[in-house]
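Comment on both lines for my students:
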Amino acid sequence: MDKIVYYGMSEINKEVFTGKSGGKINHFLREKDNLNFIVFGSSRANHHVDTKTIENKSFNIGMDGSNLAHSVTLVKTLPLDKKQTVLLHISPKHAFKKEYKGEDVEAFAKLYHTNKVMKEEIDKLNQRSVLNNFYWCLDYNNSILGLLKNYFFPNYNADKYYGYDPLKVSPENRATFKKILDKKEKETCPKNLKINSVYEQYLVELKNFCDQNHKRLVMYTSPVFRDDCKDDDLIISALLEEMGINYWNYTDFFEGDSSLQNWKDNTHLSEVGAVKFTREIKNRLIKNKLLPK
């Protein structure tokens, strides 16, 4: 019964291309071989870079709550023989979290038996319960309701969607954010910062994959309204420079523009801010000839 239900759910999953319960990933996997420019990362990629205004054949596969292992796994699914530009967002603070074990690859569980790359990454990081090897339906835990909803009632047209989700901010939201800022105390820098070993290994694998497979790699950090600690930024910048990875740190991009119109919260831009930031990204990519011709 487990296998019958699993294959039934897998057939449904093949037809879902909307939503964050797997549909967006399915959409990316369907389009990836024809793309010239792809943005990877967390919500700070998803909500900040309007890829279509940069390159027509593009997609923003930024996913809320994801980290480096999730992004690099998706990069590894790209075609090996096609020139593509990879723009991947990182948050320097995440690189130093001792507890990070690559658990964000669990988002690919439902594709464990159908996607070789995702299976290898899940197994490598030991992010799979022994029970899942016997009861395959467990791969759909936490996503089944969202999957069914988007199968029967997709909330947007996937053919017109390219991954970018701007954040619209109301005056009430801005007023709330201002109150939070007024009460926010200055943060102190953590001592003895040491990069997480899983994170560092994925940086190496990302660089190697891109070098070997015709990918122009740029890593970047999105703007932050107030960043009290720069130590993590400096360490990451030095490490990526040593590795030969092109890194653009835009943490202070809005330093000369304090307007709250640009912001949703301390680390997320509003649609207004995203338009300005996307323009900067586009101009820099063009200036450095980093977009495939």
The CA atoms of residues 74 and 277 lie 24 Å apart. Strands lie at 37-40, 58-60, 84-89, 215-221, 246-249.
